[in-house]
Structures are given as C-alpha cells and as structure tokens.
C-alpha cells in the first residue's frame, strides 16, 4: 500500500488543528452534542444537566475537534506541494505539548482547592 503524497500534510495540519480546536472547544464549551448519563440520552449541542446529574460534554468536544481538524487537514492536503513543502513536522507535537499547560491552567480549580 502506498501513502499519498499529501498524507504528511494532512497529518501535521490535523494534529495542530485538533489541539487548537480542542482547547477552544473546552474553554468556550463548543460541544457538538451532550451526553446525559443518568438518562442515557444524547442531546444536540450544549444542553443543561438532566435528572440532577452532571452532563458530559467531553464526547461533544471530541467530535467538534475531529470534524474541524479533518476539514483543516483536507484543505491542507489539497494545497499545492510548493505551499506545503515548508510545513515543519515538529508542529504536530509542539502545539499539543503547548496545549497541556493551557489545560492545567483551565483546570487549576480542581487542583488548588
């Protein structure tokens, strides 16, 4: 099996976009859907908790990030090679590594009670 020429471009842009969109989705609560574990229901978009139990937005954040990163990766894979040849593969780990301190800051209330 041969890998298409544009796959490395897709992979790098997907990794970078996923990390960035995931941080934004968690920060602004842009969930594609909400899961209510008490009633075993899914709701479209961000919904308030039902049944007195906390709603789970994590699955929606994952879906939001996956769709947005896939679109960005597909756009990058359609670009001419002369535009993407300078794309550094290190961004695929630098940007997610930089997202970790951002999450530590956003979740600091759980660590500093």
Briefly say what this structure is.
Helix content is 59%, strand content 7%.
The overall average pLDDT, rounded, is: 92
Secondary structure: number of strands: 2
Quick one: overall form?
A: elongated
SS strand fraction: 5-15%
What can you see in these coordinates?
With 113 residues, the chain is mostly helical. 59% of the residues lie in helices and 7% in strands. It is built from five helices and two strands; from the N terminus they run αββαααα. It has a two-stranded antiparallel sheet. The termini are far apart.
Characteristic terms for this protein:
5 helices; elongated; 2 strands; two-stranded antiparallel sheet; 113 residues; single chain
What layout of secondary structure does this protein have?
Elements: H1 7-28, E1 33-36, E2 41-44, H2 58-78, H3 81-84, H4 91-106, H5 108-111
Antiparallel strand pairs: 1-2
Helix pairs in contact: 1-2, 1-4
